[in-house]
Amino acid sequence: MNMKQAYKNIFIAGLFLASFAIGAFCASSPGPQDVFLQANQAYEKGDYDTAINLYLGLAGKGFEGVSLYYNIGNAYYRRGERGPAILWYERALRLDPRDSDIQFNLRLASNHLKDERESILNRMTLFLSAGELGVLFSLVWWAFFILLGCLVLGWLKGELWPGLSLWSLGTAGVCLGIWLGANLFLINQPIGIVIKAPGEVRNGPGQEYAVGFTVPEGTKVVVLNRRPDWVEVGVPQQGLKGWLPSDEIEQI
Question: Which of 87, 108, 132, 206 is the most buried (most CB within 10 A)?
């Protein structure tokens, strides 16, 4: 056997071993669906610590979804941590704002927050998700321009109904555009949840500053500013603002 053939055989053997190693690794490494099922099983057994670690591992790798966020909220609630539970219920609600189970559990976890009620206008604005509004907005304007093109080309007969339809589609498109803009404005606001007690809001970014007021775990606040280890927050319901340690708040 010449040297060229020997090198060729070694190369082929190396490729085979590498393929085998990759296949064995993939076979031994559970996929995201397997991890999700493992987390669900841990939750059913009451092992909420394991369930939360597995769920958060998926979320940390970029996986998202209503079921994942909802289950994280449930696990935190079962563990008695209302703040993180509310945070993840809010995240799930952003993806599916009309889910009755999420709404019910969020109300249950937030029943100690007597003064925190979403306004009717905000609830109406968030009734549809941004994705749903985007699809409707696109469909209406596609229909508008198709109808306009048919009118320009003379493919439609009649004087009243084409013009009325065109006017209706244009009006609906403008309204949907305003609705979508308001929806995006609300969901992109820097809103955070106080995820742990004591929720002592200080007059400045440091322990040396006096406590101005306290907020319960799970309170929704507006993030105004950030410093190393500290976050400036506002509480619109009370017209107050101050500073919280950054590990006591997480942005939705």
Answer: 87
